[in-house]
Design brief:
Blueprint: H1 28-35, H2 45-48, H3 55-65, H4 72-78, H5 96-102, H6 104-117, H7 125-135, H8 141-167, H9 173-189, H10 201-206
The structure holds zinc ion.
Zinc ion binds at residues 86, 88-89, 91-92, 98, 103, 105.
Length: 215
């Protein structure tokens, strides 16, 4: 609610002015923008939501960065009697940070992916998010490859966690990396005209993309 000082002028007619609108008349669009809460765009926004993203991957990444996935640590808050041990390593509570970064299983996946992508291996989920948020602003196939791989890694980690939990089926880390590589490669090869000018050949070869790199 906004309150304004009013100074009535003698002899002047009262008029109704709709303050949110620039014209003074009621406009639903301008009222909507006035009413809604504006928030700064988060650093991870363009890492999760971008035009070439794989939607099912982005959806899980989005829930992961918001810490909204139903990890066992979260479940334990509601049901204290259940175990919160990580099903991937059986070593620590399954929190968001642990599952997607600190877990020894996940870290081996990240180590392989970091090497394949030619990027430094980060110490924490937040450090990686900060690094990607700053470094991946430029549009290039290399940056797109990193973003697709990051989203795919989160998705396949969550998939593996659920597979173990619900089906008692296990995949080793190298198989997860192969799944990530296959999906990301298929996505990029499906582009009509990928801009490959900034993708180093050594990295392209690791992802099976050497045929699209310009010589
Ligand atoms: Zn673990």
């Amino acid at each position: 609610m906004h309150l304004f000082d009013i100074y009535p002028q003698e002899g002047e007619k009262d008029t109704v002015v709709w303050v949110p609108s620039t014209s003074g008349s009621f406009k639903i669009g301008q009222t909507w923008h006035w009413l809604r809460r504006r928030q700064d765009r988060k650093i991870w926004h363009r890492l999760v939501w971008f035009s070439q993203a794989i939607p099912k991957h982005s959806f899980i990444s989005w829930l992961a960065v918001l810490n909204r996935l139903s990890t066992r640590a979260r479940q334990k808050q509601w049901t204290p009697t259940i175990s919160d041990t990580c099903i991937l390593c059986n070593g620590s509570p399954e929190t968001n940070e642990h599952l997607f970064f600190k877990c020894s299983y996940t870290r081996r996946i990240w180590q392989q992916l970091s090497s394949m992508l030619g990027i430094p291996f980060a110490d924490s989920w937040q450090v990686l998010l900060q690094w990607m948020g700053k470094k991946l602003r430029r549009k290039s196939l290399h940056n797109l490859l990193i973003k697709l791989a990051w989203n795919a890694a989160i998705y396949h980690t969550w998939l593996e966690r659920n597979r173990r939990f619900h089906q008692q089926l296990f995949k080793v880390e190298s198989m997860i990396v192969q799944d990530i590589q296959f999906e990301v490669r298929s996505k990029i090869l499906g582009f009509s005209r990928p801009n490959s000018s900034l993708l180093p050949m050594g990295i392209a070869c690791k992802w099976g993309l050497e045929t699209i790199v310009k010589h």
